[in-house]
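Q: What does the assembly look like in three dimensions?
Context provided by user:
Components: two
Sequences:
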Amino acid sequence: MDTVFHGEIHLRRYLSDQGKPEQVLPDWTHSPERLVRYYRNMVLVRQLDYKIIALQRTGQIGTYASLLGSEAIDTVVGDLMAADDVLVPYYRNHALQMLRGLPIEDVLCYWGGDERGSAAAALGDDFPNAVPIATQSLHAAGVASAFKVRGEKRVAVTLCGDGATSKGDFLEALNVAGAWQLPVVFVVNNNQWAISVPRSIQCGAQTLAQKAFGAGIRGEQVDGNDVIALHEAVSEALKHAREGKGATLIEAVSYRLSDHTTADDATRYRASEELKAAWEREPVKRLQTFLHEQGWWDERQEQAWIEEVGQMIQTSVDAYLARPQQPIEHLIDYLYAELPNALEEQRERLIRNAQPGGSRHE
Amino acid sequence: MSNAITMVEAVNLALHSEMRRDQSVMVLGEDVGVNGGVFRATVGLRDEFGMKRVMDTPLAETMIAGLSVGMATQGLKPVAEIQFMGFIFPTMEHLIGHAARMRHRTRGRLSCPLVVRVPYGGGIHAPEHHSESTEALFAHIPGLRVVIPSSPARAYGLLLAAIRNPDPVLFMEPKRVYRLNAQPVEDSGETLPLDTCYTLREGSDITLVSWGAMIKETLEAADRLAQQGVSCEVIDVVTLNPIDHNTILASVDKTGRCVIVHEAPKSGAVGAEIAATIAEKGLLSLQAPVARVTGYDTVMPYYRMEHHYMPSTADILEAVNTTLEFS
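A: Here is the predicted structure of the complete assembly.
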């Protein structure tokens, strides 16, 4: 018998769990600039995450999906995408949206139950985050189709969790990306848990990256807690797409260090030893150790940055809390480009009921 | 002079016309390219506009809808074809969960000006899953326009309007009348208005409200009734969401009687919404209960028995007579 297909999935990793180089590092890591930027951004988004959880616990923000454990993935992808590329995110990518220009205040706004959180002009053509699972994978393929039709050298980048790779939308997106050689990068944040369902029972395949084979696109696995490995994988995938060579699936292996959302309690289904072990591999500490050993970051810089970040976040929290409510008619006015006559009466009722003394006034 | 063309030819003409006028219009779907669509609605487009603008997609309806959402947000105007209404359900998450709310949830930053064309309805002896009328499932969704033509000329003008509309439109094509009656349609590039009912015939004794292929039986009934001296006002609803209730209410205010005719099952259908609105706002002008002539609340039969399911002209006449005799 002839072998008609042969495929291998490689795991890319440069830094050990303890932040020690495991192989020769790429040239760009020989100077501190980019690595320190990655580190600072990771600290920023982690501090923001802590702050949002505190706001949620004190009733000042709604149910929130923590990004703890995905700092490296969002930071690297956000840094490497070109400004006119299009991000098609899922609900755990607010750090990435921030790095693409979404003000912190708007991140808070979104999780604080205010649609204006997805409205910032700074987001350009980027999608708002997708709450339904894996639908964004197809939107990214559509965005990439638009680029291809117009002959633009832009790339669509989309992310999802490990659970999303079980959905038809994800597989249909890989399939069309392969069939049409679309300029799209799929990043799976394999954080091992889809709410309470572990990766081991999500899929029988040894890796999620090998789903790329079924679609005829590139696929690889990368340590999602290692910014250097992520940088290499994402850079190559973006370049490949931009050169018209087609799509890549990157499975970034991370760990969800948080509950699924603030409405979840992971102690119901996850062993504390497993979580403890995951904290030994986490991305921020790993890069911090590496930077310390290179002499590129020290305790004094750490304290100064944490303080600066804290002030930046607090300013945004203050602005979020002080933001006036959106006009009540916006609940109807943005449904269509022009308000249909059929909705005029309901619009008037909405406004009347919301006024002081109205039937739905708070 | 314009030649007489059928509805499916009018759809094809509108697609050619709009693709020539607007470079951002794309056609995508299963078999829409080389084959020209299973009903030939897209025939000739591939030759004129090429593979980049007329895309034969992989066989996956969810993907067709999801791709259209992605393209529409980036300034393209995708016109997707779903081969039959029975295969539209995988698209619903994208149409409802994304297309219909993109403008709203980004407060106008992004929009989703896509069109999904889909042949629907029974009466052509098609296989299982090819004959349903599930417009109510979509008409219920805020932000999703549902438009149904009933003649070649309206198919042409309404499809142009749907493509140029800045919001998503489900354009349902009643395939029973795809090739039934030809009429002259000029390729004028002019749209017909959406969000408004079309009064096909003015009358004073009773209002008949319908849409899609059932307009045929409704007009036949009106003709017969005219011979008996009964003057029917016939309203083609056309846009099932948002509904122009004012036109219907004004007519019922004049006639005092109303029969609603649709092919879809009775319960929870768009006819129920129209009847409820007449009860809310037109009760005092009614001289008889509103009647509905509809399909049954059952699964669409296979083709051997489908004529037992389809509302007939005789059904409409019976409902009209009952309504007229009510006192």
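Follow-up: Chain B has two domains: 4-184, 198-325.
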